[in-house]
Amino acid sequence: MATKKEGILFPWHHGTGAQPSYVEELDGLKNWVEKTRDSGSKAFREFTPFDWAALFLPCLRWLRTYRVKEWLLWDLLAGVSVGFMIIPQSMSYANIAGVPSVYGLYGAFLPLAVYALLGSSKQLGVGPVAVTSLLIGNGIRAMVPGSENIDNPNNPGEFAGVQDIYNHKVIQVAFLVACMYTGVGALRLGFIVRFLSHSVITGFTSGAAVIIGMSQVRYILGYKVPRMDSLHEIIEVLVAGRAGFKWKECVMGLAMLGFLIGLKVISKRVKKLHWLAALGPIMACAISIIAVVAGKLDRRGIKVVEKIPQGLPSPTIGWWAPVNNLGPMLGLSAVVMLVDLLESTSIARALARKNGYELSYNQEIVGLGIANFAGAMFNSYTTTGSFSRSAVNNSSGAKTQLAGFITSMVVMFVLLFLTKVFELLPYNTMAAIIIAGVMGLVEFDTAIYLMKTHLRDFAVWLVAFLATLFLGIELGLAAAIGLALLIVIFESAFPHTAVLGRVDRTTVYRNVEQYPGAEMVPGVLVVRLDAPVYFANVQWMEDKLVAYEAEALRFARANGIDRVEYIILDLTPVPHMDSMGAHFLEELHQSYKARGIQLILTNPSPRVVRLMERSGLIAKIGRDWIFVRVHDAVVNCQRSLMQMEAGGSLATPTWQPMGMVSPVFQSEGGAEPNGAAAGSRGGGPVAPGAAAGASLGL
Amino acid sequence: MATKKEGILFPWHHGTGAQPSYVEELDGLKNWVEKTRDSGSKAFREFTPFDWAALFLPCLRWLRTYRVKEWLLWDLLAGVSVGFMIIPQSMSYANIAGVPSVYGLYGAFLPLAVYALLGSSKQLGVGPVAVTSLLIGNGIRAMVPGSENIDNPNNPGEFAGVQDIYNHKVIQVAFLVACMYTGVGALRLGFIVRFLSHSVITGFTSGAAVIIGMSQVRYILGYKVPRMDSLHEIIEVLVAGRAGFKWKECVMGLAMLGFLIGLKVISKRVKKLHWLAALGPIMACAISIIAVVAGKLDRRGIKVVEKIPQGLPSPTIGWWAPVNNLGPMLGLSAVVMLVDLLESTSIARALARKNGYELSYNQEIVGLGIANFAGAMFNSYTTTGSFSRSAVNNSSGAKTQLAGFITSMVVMFVLLFLTKVFELLPYNTMAAIIIAGVMGLVEFDTAIYLMKTHLRDFAVWLVAFLATLFLGIELGLAAAIGLALLIVIFESAFPHTAVLGRVDRTTVYRNVEQYPGAEMVPGVLVVRLDAPVYFANVQWMEDKLVAYEAEALRFARANGIDRVEYIILDLTPVPHMDSMGAHFLEELHQSYKARGIQLILTNPSPRVVRLMERSGLIAKIGRDWIFVRVHDAVVNCQRSLMQMEAGGSLATPTWQPMGMVSPVFQSEGGAEPNGAAAGSRGGGPVAPGAAAGASLGL
Question: Which ipTM value was assigned to this complex?
C-alpha cells in the first residue's frame, strides 16, 4: 500500500533557501511571453513568408483556402442582403448621430472593406449602430452650442457653420475611438469589458432602444420639436408640439412601420420566408421614394433627406487636430469604445461558437480599431459589429469575410450612382426603419428570466433600464457601469470562507455549514479560504477569522478546553497571493503568537509558497507548521492537545510535530494521502468523547 | 464502518419540485436583514431606553463606563498634545487648500467635537489633512478663474471677490462630501474602498507628499511664484523665479526645518523623548513668532499670516446652494470622499486592532459624515482622520474619544483668545512644518518591500507614484484608481480552475498540475472551478473548458479511447452563482449533449442548487448526474465505460447510474465518504492498464 510517494510532495520545491525575488518574477514574465508567442498555430521561428504576411493581412489565410464553388454564392447572397439592409439603416443612424446621412453610407463602405481584410470574425456585420449613434449625438450636441437648433444635418441652412464644427468633432471621436480600440487590442486588455454583466448591458440597451424609438416618433408625426434624451421629456415635448401634426407624414410613416412589422412577423412565422425581414427596409425605401416621386410629396411638406453628395468620401485626416474640450471628448470616446467593444466582441464570439471556428480576440479588436482609423480618415463616424446585420449575414449563409467586402461594394455602388435617388428618401420612412429595428433590442423576456432566476440580477437590469429611460443615456450608462463595478468589487471584497469539519471519521474535511455532521476538534479551528488572497479581500478574511475564532472558543469551552490552541488555514483553493496577502498572513501569525495560538497552513500552491518564501513568511511561521493535508495537521494538533492534558502542562504546550504525521517540508515519505492507511497506522479517533457529533453550528 | 449517514447529504433539500423563485430570494433578504439587526450586542426588541439613546449618541456608551481615575489624565494629556500639533498643522493645510488659515482652525474645532460624540474610534485624530487639502486646492482653483493670482488667502486684497467665490466652493465641497459620507455609511457601502490596494495608495500618497513638500519650498526661499501641480513644473518655476530669493526667509525657514527634523530624529532615537516630535510644530511656531515680534521682521519682508478673525465660526449653511459646475464639483467631492474614507478607516481599523476593541465601520463612516456636516455648517473645509495626529493621540495614551473633545477645546481657546498671536506666524515656518510632516508619508521602504516580494505590486506602486509626480495629483489619482480597478477586474475575470486527478488510489482528487502523480481516467475529465461563477468570469471558464477538453481528448486517444465521454465539474469551491452562471452551465450542457458528452456536477452548495432549480437547470441535466463526491461520479463513469467496452456499443452508451455509487438526489444512504469502504465494496481499481501513472501534464 502507498508505494508511490512523490506525487503528494511539491515537485517544484528543490532548494530550501530563500529564492531571489524579482529575478524569478521576471523569469515568470519571460515564460509568459514565450508561452503567448508559442500559443499560435506555429512558433515564430517556424514562420514561413506566408505566415508573416498573414500576420499583417489576416485575410490571406481565408483567401488561400477559399472554396469558390461552395462558398462564393453564399457570400454574394449574404453580402448583397446585408448591403440592402445597411443602406437605409446607416443613413437613419447617421441622423440619430446628428451628422449628414452620407456619413452613415461612408461608414458602411470603407470600414467594412478594411475589416474584411483584417478582422477575424467571418460573419460580423460591421457598420454604424444605433446605440453608439445616440451616444455620439447626445455627447457632441452638449459640446457644440447651437447644434440643438439644426433641423436637417444634410441641409443645415443658416447653421452650416455649427454643423461643420459638429461634423469635425464626430470625426475626432471616431479617431480617438480608433486609437483606444487599437491600444486595447495591442495591450491585450480586451477583458476590461467583462465586468459589464449581461443584466447591466441588456438593461441599458433596452432603455436606449426605447429612447431611440421614441425619439423617432416626431418624424412620423411630422412635428418639428427639439431633441430630448429622457423618456418623460420626449413625451412632454411631443404633447406640447401636437399643433404641428401632419397627417400625410403620419399616414405614410405608420404605413411603412406597419409594412416592416408585418414582414417581420411573416418571416418569423413562415420559415421559408425568413429573408423577408432583411429586405424590408430597402423595400420600404423603394416604396416611399416611388410614392414621393409619383405624388411629388416633397413639395407638399414631406420631409426628405434633400442632399447627398455623390461619389466616394474625401479624406478628413486634417480634421483630427486640434481637439478642443479634450477631457469630455476623451470621456465620450471611452464610453463609445466600451459599448462598441462589448457589442462587437459578444456577437463575434457567439457567431464563432455557432459556426465552429476560433476567434482571435486581439486580432478582432485591432481589426476593428484599424477599420475605425480608415473611417476617421475618410469621413465616417464610428463603426462596430451590428447585432441585426450580423444575424442576417449569418442566416443568409455568409461563409467568410468576403460577404462583408461585397456589402461594402454594394454601398460603393450606391455612393457612385444612386445618391440622387436616396435624396428623396423621407424622414418618416427612416424613422419607421429605426423603430422596427430597435424593437428587437428591448429585451423584456430577459428581464422576466432574470426575475425568475436571480433577483439581484433583475434589480440591476431594472436600475440600468429605468436610469437610461429617465435620466438620459449618459447617466443611464454611468449608473449601469457603476453598478457593475460595485458588484465586481463586492464579489471581490467578500470571498467565501468555510469552517471545515471531519466527515464521518474519514480524512475528508468539508464545510460544516453544508455538512452539519462533520466533526470539529475542540481547541482546533480549521478554516478554508476560497479565493486568491489579495488586497481586495484580506480585510474580509481577517474579519471572518475573528468571528470564527470566537465561535471556536465557545465550542472549545463547551467541551472543557479553555482556549483555541491551533488555527489551521487550508489554502487548497488559493491559486496565488499578492504582497497584501503575505502581509495579512504575517500579521495573523504575530497576533496569534502573542495569544499563544499556533497558525498552521495546509496545501499551499507552488506560487503561494514562493511568495511566502520571498516575504520571509515561511521562516517566521516555521516549515514544521505547513502540511500537505488538513487531516495530517489536525491529527498532529490532537496529539499535542492530548499530551498537554496528560502532562497537565497547558501553559507550555509541546510544539513538536509528531514523527508519524510529518509536515511537508521535513520528510519525503511521511505525508500520506490514503486516509484508511493513516488511520490504520495509528492516527487515532478524533477526541471521541468531546467531539463526536458536535458541530460549530455556524 | 460508516454508520453515520446523514452528514454527507444535503440537509436543506427536502422537497423535489421547483421552488418559488423570488419569493425565496426575498426570504433570503429578510433573513439577512434579521441577521444584521441581530448582529449587534442585543436584538432590537431587547433594547433598553439607554440602548436607543446610545444608537443616536454613541458617546453615551463610553461615557457610562468612563473610569475617571484611570483614564482622565491620559485623555487630557493626549488631547492637549494633539491640540498643540493640530493648531499649526491645520493652519498650514488650509494654506495648501487655498483658503484662509482660520478655516483650518475651524476644521480642528467643531468637527472634532462632533466626531467625539458620534464616532466609534477612540484614538482617531480627526481634522484637516494634507493630501485632501492639495486635492481641494487644485480642484477648486481650476474651477475659479483668477484664483491662481491670489498670494495670501488671509488677505486677498484686490482679489477679495475671487477669494469669496473660492471659499464658497470649498464649503460646498465639504457639504457634498458630508452627504456622500453619510450615504455610504447608511447604505453600508464602506467596502467600496477595498478595491484600492495598499500599493496603489502608498504610491499615490508618496507622490502627493513629494508634491506637497516641493510646493512649500517657495515659501522657504521667499519666492512669489505661481502654484504648479507636477514636479517638473514646480522645479521649472522655482528655477525661473530665483531672482526673488530672500535670504532672511530662507535662513529662518531652514532653521525651523532643521529644528523639526532634529526633534524627530531625537524622539526616534531616545525612547523617553518620543513626545518631542509631537510638540515640535508648536515650539517652532512659538520660536518664530517670538523672532518676528522681537525683530519686527514682518515689516522687513517676512511673509506672515496677517489676518485671523477672532472668535467662533459663523454659520455657512447659506453658502451650500446654488452649486455651479455641478458635474466637476461632484467629481471632486467623490474623489475627496474616497481618499478621506480610505485614510480614515484604515487608521481607525489599525488603532482598534492595536487597542483590542471592536470598530463599527458604518457608525464610523456616518460619524465622519456628520462631523463634516457640522464643518460645512460652520465654515470649515473637509476633515478626516489624520495619520500623524492619530499616531500621536495613540502613543500619548488616549483612552477614549474624550481626548478628541479636549483637542477641540484647545483649538477653541486659541480661536477665542490667541488669534492675534498667530497672525504673526510666518509662512516659512508653516512650510517647514508641512515639509517635516509629509516626509513620513513618502514610503520608499514600502516600495522596497514590494520589489522584493511581488513585482506586480511594485509596478503598481511605481506607476501611481510617478503619475502623481509628473502628471499632477488628479491624473495621478485617476491612474492609481484605474490601475486598481483593472487589477480587480483582472482577478475577477480570470479565476483559477484546475484539472483533477486521483491521488494514489485514494478517494482524494487534486490538481494534476500540483500533484503530477495524480491519475486521470481516459475519457473522463474532472475540472474544479475555484470561484463563484458569475458574469465577470464565465467567459474565461468557458475558454478554459474548451482547452481542457482538447487536452483530455488527446490523453484519451493516447489511451485507446476515441473521445471524451464525461466531463465532471467539481463545484465544491463555488459558493454561489448568478443568472449568467446558470446560463453558462445550461449552454455547456447543451453543447456537450450535442456532441455526446455527459455533463456531471459534484458537490454544489445549497445556494447553487437553489439557483439551478429555479432556472430549470437541474431538470435539464437530470438529478442522476449530480453527485456529492468526485470519486462517486468518476467510479460511475468508469463502470459505464467498461460496460461499453464489454458490450462494444460505443455509439449508445448506457447512461444509467450504478446502484452502488448513488447520485445524491436518489438514495439517502448510498453516498459514502469513506474511500476505503467504497473501495472494499467493489468500487474497483481505476482502469488499471490505461490510467496508472499517466497524467495530463497540463
Answer: 0.74
